[in-house]
Design a protein that fits this description.
Pfam families: ABC_tran, ABC_tran_Xtn. Among the domains are: 121 residues, no CATH class; 199 residues, Rossmann fold (3-Layer(aba) Sandwich); 82 residues, no CATH class. The two termini are 49 Å apart. The protein has 27 helices and 18 strands. It is 47% helix and 13% strand. The N terminus is likely disordered.
Length: 761
């Protein structure tokens, strides 16, 4: 039996300093890991020894953390912050899979991933999940209900076949079912012990390897027993194991008792209701038919149910203490509202800060400015002392003045041995006996100003002229609803409109923002707006759609580029497919450069493609040598943007483009889109990003224009007046597209009122 999660053990290599104390207690809910090293490697070749696998990982692995410290306190809320590709998702995966020594196997850890791999999807592996209802999927993911039912089915069928009176009677069926069940359970246990043997060292490592060796023998024996010929089995063994199968089946039925499952289902329904699912939607809606936002809510419901599994619910509150939360999000407003602490990942190290992101950025800026001033003042003082030393030596030698020469030597000794920081870490005046106690050299640390992180800079190519005026694209009286023509005719009541009489015109330079709740039809509206060609060019797996009523008009010379919200999953699928490799070398993995080369079909040189990828944050070997499957979500977004921008479009349609991008890249893209001369149609839940792109808001760190160009809310009115562009925010609700006169603030006010009503229920 092969466990897919085993790939993570092969590709994520973890080591750290291990405590000599036993902390295998599930109530141990804090982590304090020092000397943490995490390296991502390719899976070792089949048949490779453990020593060869480790040697290969050292030579080819990508080091994400080196001698770092990971500290998580019980019940605290952390935001893991870092640039794309620094290893945030890998660290979360290492924690969730308990790859870090010190995390007990008994501790329940729920992970909500950034992609749709866990819920739904387009490949065969997720076909069963797509067919399940929302409620069934949540219960299955949180409790492995299907696995229990499968074991019951296997034993029941074996016992029924063994006890049958007809020609289908097979006396050994129950025995074989029992032995298969034992074999499968031992395989799962083998995975856990193999992981422990990889991660532990010293005495406990030796003990773990002994346990692994013993279990490997048990697995081999179980395999041989399962495959044993019927003629070799005695009647006594047959009778005993058939009875054992019946007893085990009775135990499994107790575990699957209706009262217990009803309790879990009741809790799942409550969680789904809290996340906005109606009873009808939870029990009848298939996961495969959900929008991206609703799929993520389904995954969140499963994570919440798994985290609360086993706890008693009293007065609507969990009996156990609140769980520890580690959050990775690039939505600045969301992180500031949820997290109390920041875990900052940079240069393979981890640092901590208590507070929100704006406070941290302000503190860093103030600290850097303060250190610059201190260093400048100390450099001036040092230069003055060195000048004094040189003068005293010169005049002392000239006049044979030993006093001046001694003064010069004393000052030189101070520069050599006692020069450096004048204050300690707490801001007090430096004292040698207190701040550098013990045996040491007397030289203090120099004032080091931390280097400023190189800012991300994105340049969008200017679009070509259209040659003659007109709307770029427009919707006139567009209506749409899902369902086949036969379904629409046979319905006793008309199906609800997904879009109802939508009118929208987009002109050169316009900034159009579309907001709305999950499932409101935003992505459907976008797909109707961009047309079949743009949907196909984006690589989206969804089939094309046409308006049920109304017309869609597109400028005949328009170059339109469409970023679909599942673009990352699409490129990741391409990178994982061997058939998508370049034609020159079928064995070569697909990279960002080779994918883009295939797209342009000779219309741009390799130098032009490398320049474009470099401007988007995929420079050099990262673009040409790193396989797509090894890139982070944010790096895959950059690749997807490169596939759009090489065409020099006049209109960019972006559906949730910020989901995987880090703060710096979001800021750079926000700034670039705000001044780009083409038209932008944006669907996003990131209000900070939409305020900048659609409404022209400028933050302090980006630099503002003159006061007369600001209306007091950060909007850059001068740019709007100069370009004559329209800055419009629409809300899609109940199939209707409505212009918000007050912009995004109107939408936020409406949401606050809705939340207040829900809290009063």
């Amino acid at each position: 039996m092969t466990l897919s999660i085993s790939d993570s053990v092969a590709s994520i290599q973890v080591s750290c300093k291990q405590t000599r104390f036993q902390i295998e207690n599930p109530n141990y809910r804090e982590l304090d890991i020092e000397g943490l090293n995490i390296t991502v490697t390719a899976s070792p070749p089949a048949g490779a020894t453990r020593a060869k696998a480790k040697a290969a990982s050292r030579s080819t692995g990508l080091e994400l953390l080196a001698d770092a410290t990971l500290r998580l306190k019980a019940g605290e809320r952390y935001a893991l912050v870092g640039r794309n590709g620094t290893g945030k998702s890998t660290i979360l995966r290492a924690i969730a899979d308990k790859l870090i020594p010190g995390i007990p196997e008994e501790v329940r850890i729920a992970i909500l991933q950034q992609t749709n791999d866990g819920v739904g999807g387009a490949d065969d592996a997720h076909a069963a999940a797509n067919r399940r209802t929302v409620l069934q999927e949540v219960i299955e993911r949180a409790t492995a209900k299907d696995e229990l039912e499968q074991e019951i089915e296997t034993l029941s069928q074996g016992l029924h076949t063994a006890a049958a009176d007809d020609s289908s009677n097979d006396a050994y069926a129950a025995l074989r079912a029992l032995r298969k069940l034992r074999h499968d359970r031992l395989q799962k246990r083998l995975f856990v012990l193999d992981k422990n043997a990889r991660l532990r060292s010293g005495a406990r490592g030796m003990q773990a390897r002994k346990a692994l060796t013993a279990l490997e023998k048990s697995v081999a024996e179980a395999t041989a027993s399962w495959q044993q010929d019927d003629s070799e089995i005695t009647a006594e063994i047959l009778h005993a194991e058939t009875q054992e199968a019946a007893d085990l089946l009775a135990d499994l039925h107790i575990q699957a008792e209706p009262a217990r499952l009803a309790h879990i289902e009741s809790r799942a329904r409550r969680i789904l209701k809290g996340l906005g699912f109606s009873d009808a939607m939870a029990t009848t809606q298939a996961v495969g038919d959900l929008s991206g936002g609703w799929r993520m809510r389904t995954a969140l419901a499963a994570a919440l149910l798994e985290a609360s599994r086993g706890d008693d619910v009293q007065s609507g509150e969990l009996g156990r203490p609140p769980p520890t939360l580690v959050l990775v999000s690039h939505d600045r407003d969301f992180v500031s509202a949820v997290a109390d602490h920041l875990i900052l990942l940079q240069d393979k190290k981890i640092t901590y800060y208590t507070g929100d992101l704006p406070s941290y950025e302000a503190a860093q800026a103030d600290s850097r400015l303060h250190l610059h001033k201190l260093k400048a003042a100390q450099d001036r003082q040092r230069a003055h002392i060195q000048e004094t030393i040189a003068r005293n030596v010169r005049e002392g030698k000239k006049n044979n003045d030993d006093t001046r020469i001694r003064q010069a030597k004393m000052r030189q000794k101070k520069l050599d041995e006692r020069w450096g920081l004048e204050t300690n870490a707490k801001g007090h005046r430096f004292k040698l006996s207190r701040d550098m106690a013990g045996f040491h050299h007397s030289r203090r640390a120099e004032i080091e100003v931390p280097p400023e992180v190189r800012p991300v800079h994105i340049v969008l190519p200017d679009p070509p002229d259209l040659r003659f005026p007109g709307a770029l694209t427009s919707l006139e009286g567009v209506c749409f609803r899902y369902g086949t023509a036969a379904e629409k005719k046979t319905q006793s009541t008309p199906l609800a409109w997904t879009l109802d009489s939508v009118n929208l015109n987009v002109h050169v330079g316009d900034r159009i923002g579309i907001v709305g709740l999950n499932g409101a039809g935003k992505s459907t509206l976008i797909r109707l707006l961009v047309g079949d060609d743009a949907v196909t060019a984006s690589g989206q797996a969804s089939s094309s759609i046409r308006p049920t009523k109304g017309t869609v008009t597109v400028h005949p010379r328009l170059r339109l580029a469409y970023y679909a919200q599942d673009a990352v999953d699409t490129i990741r699928t391409l990178g994982g497919s061997s058939s998508s490799s370049s034609s020159d070398n079928d064995d070569a993995p697909l990279t960002a450069l080779s994918l883009l080369t295939r797209d342009v079909q000779g219309k741009l040189s390799e130098g032009d493609l490398r320049a474009l990828l470099g401007e988007l944050g995929l420079p050099g070997r990262l673009a040409s040598d790193t396989p797509l499957r090894r890139l982070s979500g944010g790096q895959l977004v950059r690749c997807a943007l490169a596939r759009l921008l090489w065409q020099r479009p006049q209109c960019l349609v972006l559906d949730e483009v910020t989901t995987h991008l880090d703060y710096e890249t979001n800021t750079a893209l926000r700034r670039a889109l705000r001044t780009w001369p083409g038209a932008v149609i944006l669907v996003s839940h990131d209000r900070w990003f939409m305020r900048g792109v659609i409404e022209g808001a400028v933050d302090d760190e980006e630099g503002s224009t003159s006061g007369e160009d600001d209306d007091g809310s950060g909007r850059n009115l001068g740019l709007e007046k100069a370009s004559g562009r329209r800055n419009l925010v629409y809300r899609l609700r109940a199939g209707k597209l409505t212009l918000l006169q007050g912009g995004l603030q109107d939408f936020e006010d409406q949401l606050e009122k809705r939340v207040e009503k829900l809290l009063q229920l």
